[in-house]
């Protein structure tokens, strides 16, 4: 599909494309749409949040969301939930606190300077008269160092503490951020998000987008995107995130693009990702923000003491990788959608970008599986798979 065809299809209507599979392109007023996050509300409605604007890193990038009521056949209209004209607002995450309040977390950075990013937290309200309408007035920045970034959702520890997965874009004096010194951490709050303490994860250079999955009361496995574009990495904690094992590679390739992990109701662990890496493609680009065209004569960060980040590896196919041993191995992989995955440009207008990236997944209590991901950076695609999607009859997923 070219950008014009995609735009014409962005109605939000869920349409059947195969037995047990429905798809929608979410409505948006923006040319670029990226980084979907799905959340299920108490009444069974879904919220999908993402960021949109003209180009990632530009100050017109804001957070949007829309609602799919339970039983509905179409998503509601897009709602703009952030309004900072001076920052690129990215990577939304929606969290329902134990007290029932709904929170939006997202990043805010000047231009492509992720090392100057701050995390904003704002309460989200749903209109009592029109449940398709969301608002997020006010908000505040978290008391965390600049350069902290989010992607995955909060988990609530057994003692009630909130664990917010973080990756740190470390500042290098007089040098531009390029991902070469990014590390992983967990921000922990014991007072409902009022204050936060940062717990770094040792030996995690290049490990970002930490995605935790509960294995037991205080035991979690967590999985990483890798700047080095080699493999998804795994770490584990047995003390509720106070300490973590050194990250180690799994058998799933990674292309330095986002992943998401969850435990399914049958006990299996699922990761949705683009299971390709740098050894499988020679395609490269200089950096994530090499098209912003903004004056910055600083050199890229020296990788000494860090890693050499790899950008430009194709972001396709989208696949579900399944594990029965708590994420130690992923022998079963089901393709959701294939394509060239070309991502040498972030431009959403000229049709060069063909990525299907930044996927998210959410399982309903009845086994329905919802997937959302970036489609050519022009739209957010929602895929709904009926219960039984992983049966022999349901294997034709793409």
From TrEMBL:
The UniProt keywords, alphabetically, are: Glycosidase, Hydrolase
Q: What is its EC number?
A: 3.2.1.18
Molecular function (GO) terms listed?
exo-alpha-sialidase activity
Q: Does the entry feature the keyword Hydrolase, yes or no?
A: yes
Under the heading CDD domains, the entry gives:
Sialidase_non-viral
Which InterPro entries does the UniProt entry name for this protein?
Sialidase (IPR011040), Sialidase_sf (IPR036278)
Tell me one Pfam family matched here: BNR_2
Q: What class of enzyme is it?
A: hydrolase
Q: Which domain of life is it from?
A: Bacteria
Where in the numbering of this chain does the Sialidase domain appear? Answer: 44-371
- Spell out the PANTHER family in the cross-references: BNR/ASP-BOX REPEAT FAMILY PROTEIN (PTHR43752), BNR_ASP-BOX REPEAT FAMILY PROTEIN (PTHR43752:SF2)
Q: What is this protein called?
A: Exo-alpha-sialidase
